[in-house]
């Protein structure tokens, strides 16, 4: 299957079992529901999937189990970034061996924040060694570091670096990244508040934490935009934003509890991420129930 980098992907939460271990079975149950909403692909082990808290064995179990649940015609993107080049390459090879279609690689920042020469070599070395295509991951909310469009352009010429998930939330930056890079370079926004704006300036789609409970809304937005219904797409952006901006302050724990409210598989996050208090859970429940997402 040719790699399809278009549309709406949830940045999937990772459910755990009663012993706190990753649960491919519960994850698969979510995939079945997302399929009914028409999602175009899936990001497994991204930031919302708590990838930083997974060891290599857990990653393998999860990737293998989830790949079996995702239809073969849907893209499975796996977060494979690590602070070291060596481990990132190892994770890329593991993901490829277990059926991933591409990998999402976050910038290493502990020692190399802002050091573009080191960052550039990291991406080139990873792309040289990865058996599957690589997307750059810009997520300044977690890394405290924003990748510039110029930097992206300096790595996008590598034949195995095929796109970016940019979660900075800056539509102008998305536009400049598209403007400065080849036409076949896939630019996704990772920020739910600018999905319509990103599509309007040429983005391929969106990879969203909000896609966990609200994926159907973003699919509707994307489909309206693709058929030329700009007014309809903009209205869905406004409607989804009214819900997303209330849920997003609760973070990963909030997205997971929103899934619970809907009868999906969410659960608590892994410590040290704190679970929601009873008061916060009640607030999330009220937001979700008032929105009545399908």
The run of helices and strands is EHEHEHEHEHHEHEHEHHHH
Low-confidence stretches: none
Integer tally of domains: 1
**What's the total number of strands?**
8
Strand order across the biggest sheet? 1-8-7-6-5-4-3-2
Average pLDDT figure: 97
Please give the largest β-sheet.
8 strands, parallel
Question: Could you say what the CATH topology is called?
Answer: TIM Barrel
The helix count comes to 12
Characterize the structure shown:
The chain has 294 residues and is α/β, with parallel strands linked by helices. It has one domain (7-229): Aldolase class I (TIM Barrel), CATH 3.20.20. 48% of the residues lie in helices and 13% in strands. The protein has twelve helices and eight strands. The protein has helices spanning 24-37, 56-69, 85-97, 116-129, 140-143, 149-155, 171-180, 195-200, 211-226, 230-247, 251-261, 278-291, and strands at 7-10, 41-44, 75-79, 102-106, 134-138, 161-166, 186-189, 205-208. The protein has an eight-stranded parallel beta sheet. Helix 3 (85-97) packs parallel to helix 4 (116-129) and helix 9 (211-226) runs antiparallel to helix 10. The model has no long low-confidence stretch (mean pLDDT 97).
Topology:
Elements: E1 7-10, H1 24-37, E2 41-44, H2 56-69, E3 75-79, H3 85-97, E4 102-106, H4 116-129, E5 134-138, H5 140-143, H6 149-155, E6 161-166, H7 171-180, E7 186-189, H8 195-200, E8 205-208, H9 211-226, H10 230-247, H11 251-261, H12 278-291
Parallel strand pairs: 1-8, 2-3, 3-4, 4-5, 5-6, 6-7, 7-8
């Amino acid at each position: 299957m040719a790699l399809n980098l278009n549309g709406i992907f949830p940045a999937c939460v990772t459910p755990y079992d009663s012993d706190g271990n990753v649960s491919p079975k519960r994850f698969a149950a979510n995939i079945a529901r997302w399929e009914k909403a028409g999602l175009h692909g899936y990001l497994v082990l991204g930031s919302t999937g708590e990838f930083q808290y997974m060891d290599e064995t857990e990653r393998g179990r999860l990737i293998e189990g989830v790949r079996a649940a995702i239809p073969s015609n849907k893209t499975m993107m796996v977060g494979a970034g690590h602070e070291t080049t060596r481990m990132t390459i190892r994770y890329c090879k593991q993901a490829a061996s277990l059926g991933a279609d591409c990998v999402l690689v976050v910038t290493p920042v502990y020692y190399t924040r802002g050091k573009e020469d080191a960052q550039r070599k990291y991406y080139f070395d990873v792309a040289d060694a990865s058996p599957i295509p690589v997307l750059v991951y810009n997520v300044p909310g977690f890394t405290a570091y924003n990748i510039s469009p110029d930097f992206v352009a300096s790595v996008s010429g590598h034949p195995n670096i095929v796109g970016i998930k940019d979660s900075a939330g800056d539509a102008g930056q998305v536009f400049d990244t598209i403007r400065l890079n080849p036409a076949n370079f896939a630019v996704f926004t990772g920020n739910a508040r600018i999905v319509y704006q990103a599509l309007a300036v040429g983005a391929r789609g969106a990879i969203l934490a909000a896609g966990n409970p609200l994926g159907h809304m973003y699919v509707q937005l994307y489909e309206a935009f693709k058929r030329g219904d700009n007014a309809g797409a903009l209205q869905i952006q406004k409607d989804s934003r009214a819900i997303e901006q209330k849920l997003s302050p609760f973070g990963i724990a909030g997205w997971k509890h929103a899934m619970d409210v809907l009868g999906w598989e969410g659960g608590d996050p892994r410590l040290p991420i704190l679970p929601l208090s009873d008061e916060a859970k009640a607030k999330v429940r009220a937001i979700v129930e008032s929105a009545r997402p399908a």
